[in-house]
């Protein structure tokens, strides 16, 4: 068994990202991405016994967190959840998303084509390339979405409450403004309810 990462003949069935766009492509396409609104980092928080998940997104400029509850952990579940969230929004409100190399994001091409949003992938084994999202996930774990939670028994409303509390805490990096306040500089009130 030594050296085997997947013992007992386990085979991954959740698909693979083909021809994925690397993080260097994002740096080329958006040279000022760290000063632009609409650049997202995304990942999933996995629940009890890896049976459920919550999709998390963070807007880089405002550090505003968004959490979406998909029906499951499959690529099709993530695609459906993202489509449902992006459909009512204005085109080009969000310019790009960076994910890790998880199999749950293997339907990225369909999402990118449908919503005209650029999707990139961090290099394998380098969570620091999506450091803001990793840090935000840690805060959500601490503040109401711990690892032992079965997200199948938690509603979208309960998840949104946890995220809302975090988004209303002032942050030093935002000159002691809250992420929501900074986010509202770029969207109006009517859109906020559809986003978060």
Structure description:
With 196 residues, the chain is α/β, with parallel strands linked by helices. The chain is built from seven helices and five strands. The chain is 33% helix and 14% strand. The protein has a five-stranded mixed sheet with strand order 3-2-1-4-5, sandwiched between helices.
**Looking at this structure, what is the CATH superfamily?**
Ribonuclease H-like superfamily/Ribonuclease H
Compute the number of helices: 7
Low-confidence residue ranges: none
> What would the CATH topology be?
Nucleotidyltransferase, domain 5
Spatial strand sequence of the major β-sheet: 3-2-1-4-5
E-strand count: 5
Strand-residue proportion:
5-15%
Molecular shape = globular
* Element-level helix/strand string: HEEEHEHEHHHH
Biggest sheet character: 5 strands, mixed
Q: Which CATH architecture? A: 2-Layer Sandwich
* CATH class descriptor name: Alpha Beta
Class from secondary-structure proportions: alpha/beta
Rg from Cα = 17 Å
* Gap from first CA to last CA: 45 Å
The total tally of domains equals: 1
Domain Integrase catalytic: 27-187
Organism: Alkalibacillus flavidus
Region (Disordered): 1-23
Biased composition (Basic and acidic residues): 9-23
Short summary:
InterPro entries: Integrase_cat-core (IPR001584), RNaseH-like_sf (IPR012337), RNaseH_sf (IPR036397), Transposase-Integrase (IPR051917), Transposase_IS30-like (IPR053392). With 196 residues, the protein is an alpha/beta fold. 33% of the residues lie in helices and 14% in strands.
């Amino acid at each position: 068994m030594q050296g085997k990462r997947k013992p007992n003949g386990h085979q991954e069935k959740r698909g693979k990202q083909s021809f994925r766009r690397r993080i260097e492509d994002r740096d080329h396409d958006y040279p000022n991405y760290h000063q632009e609104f609409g650049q997202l980092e995304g990942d999933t928080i996995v629940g009890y016994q890896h049976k459920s998940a919550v999709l998390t997104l963070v807007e880089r400029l405002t550090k505003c967190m968004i959490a979406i509850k998909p029906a499951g952990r499959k690529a099709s579940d993530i695609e459906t959840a993202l489509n449902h969230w992006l459909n009512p929004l204005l085109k080009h409100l969000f310019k790009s998303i960076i994910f890790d190399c998880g199999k749950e994001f293997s339907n990225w091409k369909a999402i990118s084509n449908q919503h005209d949003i650029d999707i990139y992938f961090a290099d394998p084994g380098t969570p620091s390339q999506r450091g803001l999202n990793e840090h935000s996930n840690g805060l959500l774990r601490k503040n109401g979405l711990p690892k032992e939670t079965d997200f199948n028994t938690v509603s979208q409303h309960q998840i949104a409450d946890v995220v809302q509390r975090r988004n209303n805490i002032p942050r030093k990096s935002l000159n002691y403004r809250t992420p929501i306040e900074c986010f509202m500089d770029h969207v109006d009130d009517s859109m906020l309810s559809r986003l978060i």
